[in-house]
């Protein structure tokens, strides 16, 4: 009965904690959506991407004046200057109003405010920054050949361009950390940084021609970045866009567009405050509960730290504390982000006055224009640094749902019907570990084989991480045999065919078999347990009875019984009766004691009832009614004889058999079956 009560207490606790765990997901989701604004940010960034890709064209043909190339077709230094002069300038530095094709009239030049608008609703902030990363001289790997050919060797720092980088690789941090000097990817040569000013009434094309004539791009250029900033007043979103041209040492030029976007006013809507208060308030409650549990464990162990430490820490407590720490890490980065956004908002207030003074000055080298350019540089740097904080907050927020999921599993663990998945994984852990050793051995063997066969032809196998990802995708059905055929069809057939046989048809199905075998055992063991809905009904019923004074809490029953009979009663085999429980728990009603005792007996009977198959019953009965047949194997003819003899037994339990011999046979057969 004590075991039954403890199980009921744990089940009630799990069911009561389940809504809180689900609400934590809801608060986090709503808070994260209010912070990230994915539909708004993506709408703005995709619009800029589309404009740069589709409208910034060069390589025009006459008489139709159609541009046949975009920034993805920049393959030489001359192409880059052509794209800047004809393509990018046309969309970002327009001077006249565009008219429809075939129109024989002009709409005149644009005003200053019209020229300051980009994509209808976005205001240009500052000029366009052209920055550059340079290669540096280094020792040659083969100095004999290099010296014989009179070659100078160069090397790079930061981003490796032997393979096409991802957008995340390209947009990595550009600030050099003192404790990690090699962490940055973009080493800007500030002596090569150039500003193209559109707010001043000076020809943009002239500035670009001067760049080309001075040889701004040369064989020492490793990366050229074109950056500009826009602000959407309707969404209150500031966006920094960078078009990267990556000049690999191999001679290939990779192109990539990256953005940094965020809302300037972090709490312009009251919902943001609400979701933050709900989420971090929820986390604070969890923190207080876990702290109280730790202090209680310390008190129970008489303030012995080592003993209390061992008693307190378990897997689920680790999950709780990790979720608490990560939540507060999100809070710290969010506060830092809000502070940066407020500072940025104050900085933007001075923008218009500084650039208006520059436009009214004598020229680009005036003190007013130099001050405006310094302001732009500081603004870009401020946005870049704020972008690091935003990215850190996003990464932590991206991993945090794993902690929420583990907390859900904690709530599931105490309810047998909900704990099927966790129990299956726990019971199968040993088999899965051994299976994992075999699977990883075969998997990494094929990774090495794929890199050896296809590493030079197929980009997906050009590096270890790419090959691992490609084989994982193939495991789930995503693969491209056509690319593998570049190394020859026999090799592609051998590699792909053997991998499908070993990994998919054999190992993947073995994994499913291991899990399903354990799942069947766990599911069979949980069939006798109460469902979630029955648990909820019991909680409401006991709560109503407690309100009327007809119910004593189960935890109080166990506590008082243990206080009177000692902790050893929990492991004792002594039979207890209703009177024992009533005498140990003052105030307990006899009706409740009888209900709990009866429920405990019913659960014990269900858990300990053997699962007897009909074949076992027929075989065993046959040995007692089949004239001494000792073999458990029963043929169809023997089954017919058994049925005939069993039919002779009277159906009345009071007169189970017509003779003492038959009665004894039935009793012995039943005992053997059980």
Automatic annotation (TrEMBL):
GO cellular component, one term: membrane
Pfam families (alphabetical): PKD_channel
Membrane topology per record: Multi-pass membrane protein
Principal subcellular localisation of the protein: membrane
Subcellular location: Membrane
InterPro entries tied to this protein: PKD1_2_channel, Polycystin
Transmembrane segments: 234-253, 273-292, 313-335, 434-454, 491-519
Protein name in the entry: Polycystin-2 (Polycystic kidney disease 2 protein homolog)
Lineage of producing organism: Eukaryota, Sar, Alveolata, Dinophyceae, Suessiales
């Amino acid at each position: 009965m004590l075991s039954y009560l403890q199980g009921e207490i744990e089940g009630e606790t799990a069911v009561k904690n389940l809504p809180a765990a689900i609400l934590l997901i809801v608060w986090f989701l709503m808070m994260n959506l209010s912070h990230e604004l994915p539909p708004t940010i993506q709408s703005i960034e995709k619009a800029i991407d589309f404009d740069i890709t589709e409208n910034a064209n060069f390589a025009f043909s006459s008489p139709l004046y159609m541009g046949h190339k975009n920034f993805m077709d920049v393959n030489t230094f001359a192409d880059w200057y052509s794209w800047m002069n004809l393509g990018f300038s046309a969309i970002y530095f327009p001077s006249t109003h565009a008219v429809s094709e075939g129109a024989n009239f002009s709409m005149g030049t644009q005003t200053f405010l019209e020229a300051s608008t980009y994509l209808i609703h976005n205001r240009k902030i500052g000029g366009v920054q052209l920055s550059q990363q340079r290669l540096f001289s280094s020792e040659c790997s083969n100095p004999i050949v290099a010296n014989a050919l009179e070659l100078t060797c160069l090397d790079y720092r930061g981003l490796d361009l032997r393979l096409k980088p991802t957008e995340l690789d390209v947009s990595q941090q550009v600030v050099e950390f003192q404790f990690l000097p090699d962490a940055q990817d973009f080493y800007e040569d500030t002596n090569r940084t150039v500003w193209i000013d559109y707010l001043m009434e000076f020809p943009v094309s002239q500035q670009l021609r001067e760049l080309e004539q001075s040889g701004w791009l040369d064989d020492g250029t490793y990366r050229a970045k074109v950056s500009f900033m826009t602000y959407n007043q309707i969404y209150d979103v500031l966006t920094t866009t960078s078009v990267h041209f990556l000049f690999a040492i191999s001679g290939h030029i990779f192109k990539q567009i990256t953005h940094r976007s965020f809302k300037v006013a972090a709490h312009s809507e009251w919902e943001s405050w609400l979701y933050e208060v709900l989420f971090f308030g929820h986390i604070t409650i969890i923190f207080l509960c876990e702290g109280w549990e730790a202090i209680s464990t310390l008190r129970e162990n008489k303030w012995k730290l080592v003993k209390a430490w061992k008693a307190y820490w378990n897997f689920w407590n680790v999950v709780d504390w990790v979720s608490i720490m990560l939540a507060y890490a999100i809070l710290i980065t969010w506060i830092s982000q809000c502070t940066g956004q407020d500072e940025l908002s104050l900085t933007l207030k001075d923008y218009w006055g500084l650039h208006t003074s520059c436009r009214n000055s004598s020229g680009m080298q005036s003190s007013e224009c130099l001050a405006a350019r310094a302001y732009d540089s500081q603004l870009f740097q401020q946005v870049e640094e704020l972008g690091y904080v935003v990215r850190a907050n996003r990464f932590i927020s991206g991993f945090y749902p794993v902690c929420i999921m583990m907390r859900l599993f904690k709530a599931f663990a105490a309810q047998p019907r909900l704990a099927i998945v966790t129990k299956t994984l726990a019971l199968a852990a040993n088999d899965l570990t051994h299976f994992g050793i075999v699977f990883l051995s075969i998997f990494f063997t094929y990774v090495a084989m794929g890199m050896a066969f296809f590493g030079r032809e197929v980009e997906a196998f050009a590096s270890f991480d790419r090959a691992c990802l490609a084989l994982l995708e193939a495991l789930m059905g995503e693969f491209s045999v056509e690319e593998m055929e570049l190394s020859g069809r026999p090799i592609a057939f051998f590699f792909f065919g053997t991998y499908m046989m070993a990994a998919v048809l054999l190992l993947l199905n073995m994994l499913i078999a291991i899990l399903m075998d354990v799942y069947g055992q766990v599911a069979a063991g949980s069939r006798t347990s109460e469902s979630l809905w029955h648990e909820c009904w019991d909680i409401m019923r006991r709560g109503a009875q407690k309100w009327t004074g007809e119910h004593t809490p189960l935890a109080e029953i166990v506590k008082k019984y243990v206080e009177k009979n000692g902790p050893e009663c929990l492991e004792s085999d002594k039979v207890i009766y209703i009177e024992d429980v009533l005498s140990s728990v003052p105030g307990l009603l006899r009706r409740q004691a009888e209900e709990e005792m009866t429920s405990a007996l019913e659960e014990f009977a269900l858990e300990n009832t053997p699962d007897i198959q009909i074949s076992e019953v027929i075989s065993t009965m046959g040995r007692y009614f089949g004239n001494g047949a000792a073999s458990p194997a029963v043929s169809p003819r023997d089954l017919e004889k058994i049925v005939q003899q069993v039919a002779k037994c009277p159906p009345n339990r009071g007169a189970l058999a017509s003779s003492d011999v038959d009665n004894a046979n039935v009793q012995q057969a039943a005992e053997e079956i059980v």
